[in-house]
Structure formats: C-alpha cells, structure tokens
Amino acid sequence: MPPADRFANSTEFYVRYVETDAMRIVNHAHYISWMEESRSEYARGRGSDYAAFEREGVALAVVELNVNYKSSARYGDRVRVTCWIEELKSRLMKFGYEIHNATTGVLLVTATTRHVCINLETGAAAVIPERWRTAMAK
Amino acid sequence: MPPADRFANSTEFYVRYVETDAMRIVNHAHYISWMEESRSEYARGRGSDYAAFEREGVALAVVELNVNYKSSARYGDRVRVTCWIEELKSRLMKFGYEIHNATTGVLLVTATTRHVCINLETGAAAVIPERWRTAMAK
Amino acid sequence: MPPADRFANSTEFYVRYVETDAMRIVNHAHYISWMEESRSEYARGRGSDYAAFEREGVALAVVELNVNYKSSARYGDRVRVTCWIEELKSRLMKFGYEIHNATTGVLLVTATTRHVCINLETGAAAVIPERWRTAMAK
Amino acid sequence: MPPADRFANSTEFYVRYVETDAMRIVNHAHYISWMEESRSEYARGRGSDYAAFEREGVALAVVELNVNYKSSARYGDRVRVTCWIEELKSRLMKFGYEIHNATTGVLLVTATTRHVCINLETGAAAVIPERWRTAMAK
Question: Residue A136 pLDDT more than 90?
C-alpha cells in the first residue's frame, strides 16, 4: 500500500484484447507497460509532464524491476494502477506500485522499479533537475 | 467521417511511451490495437460487451485491414479514436475509423476493417447472433 | 506471389507466446510488426542496413497498409515472412508480402505497405538516397 | 552466469524496430517477452514443446519477476538470450537469464522468473507432469 505521508496516483482503464494471450489472461509483460503509463499519469497528476522532462535533455532509465503477480486480469476488466515514489535522490528514483481489479478490488500485482537519471545525448548519469524533483515529490 | 445516420463511438486516451519507436513517433502497428480497443468501446457504448459475445461461443475474426497514415502521434499526445459500422450482414461486419489528435484536431489515420463471425470451437464461419447484431446496429 | 523478375527476402521464426491473444491465435496487429522486421531482413539480404539508412538523416514512414488475413497462426508455429519491392520511385516505396506457415505451407496473410522517404529532422518528404535505392533494388 | 552443472539454452535474434521507443533504445518491457521466448527455446532445446505441455491441461504462470538492466540494446542489434533452470520443484520452477549483445558481448540484462504450475481449466495450483519435469531438467 502507498505510504500515508505522500501523493499516490491512480489510473483506471480497460484491459485491451491485444494485451491478453493464449492463456486467456493478460500477458505478464504488459503490466510493465501499465506501470510505465502510471508513471506518466503520476507526472500529470503533479502538474508536470514527462515529455517536458525529456525536452530538458534528460531521461529516467529503468535499472531494476521487481514484480509479484498475485492474480490475473482478463480482457475487458477495468484495472486500476496506483503508483507512488518510494525514494527520491539526486540521481535516483524508486517507484512503488499496486495494480487492482477496479471492479472487484482484488489485488493483481505489487511491484517496484528503480530509475537513474541520464543525459539523453551522452547516456551518462545525470542529476535530476531540481525543478522537476520538487514537482514530483511535493 | 462517420456517416450522419448512425452511431459512432469516440474514445480518448494518452499515447503510452511503449507505443513510440526510435523515430520518436507512435509505431504504425499500435494504431491497429487502438482500433481494436475502439471496437470494444463501441460495444460498451451500445450497452453491450464483446467478452459476453465471445462467451456465446463466437468471435469476430479480422479478415481485412486498410489503413492510411496522414500524420503522426507522439508520446503523451491525447488521441481520439472514432469508429462506426460501415456494413453489417449476417456473417460479416465492416468498421470505419478516424483517429485524431484530440488537442489539435489534426487527422492522424483513416482506416477500415472487415470481420467475419466464426465459431470459436470449430473456427467455421457462423451467423452473428441476432441479439448482438441488433445491439450493435441500433 | 513475388514477381519472378526480382529479389524477395524470406525470414523464418517461431510465433512468440506474447503475440497470441485470448482467441488462442496470433493477434492481427503483430503481423504488421513481422512485416516491418521482414523489411529489415530485406535490407540485410541486400547487404544494406536500415539503421545505417537512418543515420543518413532520412527514414521511410509508412503511409498506407493493406492486409488480407487468410488463415491464423498459433503459438510455437514456425512462420515465414516473404517481402519484395513492388514499386520504387525517387521518394516512394511499395512493398509486397506473403506470410506462410513454414511447416505446412499454408498461406496466412497477403499484404502491401507504401512508404515515403522523410527527413528525420524536419519531417518533410525527401529523396531516397541514390546509393540506398540502388542497393535495395539490385 | 548459468551454473556449470546444467543445460542452458541460448537464442539469438535481431532487435525489431517496434521494440524500440522514443529513447531510441529497446523499451524495458520487451526484454520480458524475450525471456518468455527464451523459455520456449529452452523447451525446444530439450526436445520438448511448451505448446504440448499446455495441451495436457496445465500451464506455467509467472508469479515473480526480477530484472536488472545493465546496458541498452538498439534497433538492429543482434542479441543473445540465455536461460537455465535455477530451481525445479513439484509445483514450482525458477529460471535464470542473461541477455547479451551477441556482437560485442556486452551484458545487457540479468533476471530471474518464478513460475507455478496451474490447471488451465480451474486455475488451481497443480503438479508439473513428471514426464515434462524430466525432459526439462535432464
């Protein structure tokens, strides 16, 4: 569960048919993309914008991913992806996630991702711009 | 443009990062999945449900796809996918589509898809269940 | 079928699990990505390289897509994607495709795509570099 | 690195354009699908077949995923995915992975996945069929 002391963003959408596989459930890889979209929504929820972040010449590269799959989702299910910042340092960010079936409330996935800020041109580690760090954490 | 005499469904969402490619625009394959999701929304907009349709033992298999790409979409863009039924026969359906940038109104894609109803168990062509045909066309 | 008077490239690979959907067959959108990969292999088959093409500051943007789905593929099937150049002008290319089950020989898909050459920086239409045009068509 | 005392399977392929994103590198979600395909190849390398496994009415559901991203891959890169069995119990399997750039030898990703065997009809935990367990571990 998101810590009580900080902002958490929740996004809801329907499971797309293309996201299912021959087991008739959502393929495990697609949860990773939902988490990515949830980070985008987090930034929007903070009045910020990840595209603007990249226009400053930096990006957040994923360096670690840990996912626990608890229950499965099916085509047409309404799912809710919640994410929050676990840790925010000058060059690093860690996000926490929970994904639920929005209708039944069943927990589908818990996860974390770690990111490093990199300079888009050189690929070298970079400091997260102060303005963006403040916007994300507030 | 959707014919004036019939229902058309419009769905809006943000472009996901995973949908872009190294040209920094949405990869052309993903529009196909957006169109598929738009058909799902069409059914919901008619008070119906494609998952329920499949639970009756039938499915709509895509047999033809025609897409014209007019302009490109980028990460974070808000897009609007509109679809409507071009043709509805006992065993066949044809959908028409337009995809716009929802913010600027720029037309991105026009497309059509043709579908045949098949029996999910045998794969043989089947008649679209009357109840569903009525729901979709009303 | 590819015209007898020109080079055609064939690529074989296994259907990935993630490419299937809840109908237990390959989702129709993934054939589009297979065709894209087949164009990459075409370039490699000509001793060329699409990545090098883009490093010259130009790209081939897809402007039209026409696909006919004849039969379906399943997880683990070996498929063969064949492509060839239908038309090659100073700013335009058209590819033709056939996709078969490589084991049974059954035809799965026929398709064409049309592309325009664009300047990657400005997005404006551009002339296909002569050297590359020659390499592709030889 | 795969333990010296057991079989490890390596698969090579080219990075597809659709697998890249606007950072001009492979999107982190696609490595998950490469790992899935690598498990398919592992089964083929053991003279077995995951499709046949599922035809026996059971499946291996992913319950945990841990990935460390070390370096990035780009369009057209030749990558090599290596996987092996870390642990094999009556109802559980754990796979280990390494993904390299096959040309330069640079390590891109290390990962593990945990799976439970489930009955495809009921979704309940099931024992991995003995015959298949033997084939995989030999």
Answer: no
C-alpha B24/C-alpha B40 separation (Å) is 28
| Residue in D17, D25, D26, D31 to test binding to B, most B beta-carbons within 10 Å | D17
A19: helix, coil or strand?
helix
With residues binned 3-state (H G I as helix, E B as strand, rest as coil), the percentages for chain D, rounded to 5, are 25, 40, 35
Q: Are C61 and C116 in contact (CB under 8 A)?
A: yes
Name the DSSP letter for residue A17.
G
Contact call for A76 and B36, based on CB within 8 A = no
d(CA B59, CA B120): 6
Which tens digits make up the pLDDT trace of D115-132? 999 998 898 999 999 988
Cα(D40)–Cα(D137) distance, rounded to whole angstroms?
Answer: 14
By three-state DSSP, how is residue C28 classified?
Answer: helix
In the structure encoding, which two tokens stand for residue A67, read together?
Answer: 């996912």
Residue C59 · residue C117 · CB < 8 Å: yes
Distance CA B70, CA B81 (A): 14
Beta-bridge mates of residue C97: C83, C111
Please, what is the average pLDDT of chain A? 95
Q: What is the pLDDT of residue D137?
A: 81
Which residues of chain B fall below pLDDT 70?
138
| Set of chain C residues whose Cβ sits within 8 Å of the Cβ of D16 | 33, 36-37, 40
Helix, strand or coil for residue C117? strand
- Taking an 8 Å cut-off on Cβ atoms, the answer to whether A14 and B37 are in contact is yes
Contact D111, D67 (CB under 8 A): yes
- Exposure of B4 in the CB half-sphere (CA atoms within 13 A): 0
Token pair in block for residue A10? 């929740």
Separation between Cα atoms, residue B112 and residue D9, nearest integer Å: 43
Distance from CA of D16 to the nearest CA of C (A): 6
Q: What is the separation of C-alpha D8 from the centre of its chain, rounded to a whole number of angstroms?
A: 11
Residues with Cβ within 8 Å of B79's Cβ and at least 6 positions away in sequence, in order, are B12, B13, B14, B15, B34, B73, B99, B100, B101, B102, B108
Chain D interface includes B21 (CB < 8 A) = yes
| ipTM of model | 0.96
Query: What is the C-alpha to C-alpha distance for residues B100 and B113, in angstroms, rounded to an integer?
Result: 18
Where is average pLDDT lowest: A133-137, B68-72, C81-85, D21-25?
A133-137
B38/D43 Cα distance (integer angstroms)? 37
Residue A131, phi then psi, degrees to nearest 5: -60, -40
Contact, A14 vs B37, CB < 8 A? yes
- Answer whether D36 touches C (CB < 8 Å): yes
Pairing label, strands B8-14, D8-14: unpaired
Q: Is the entire prediction scored with pTM above 0.95?
A: yes
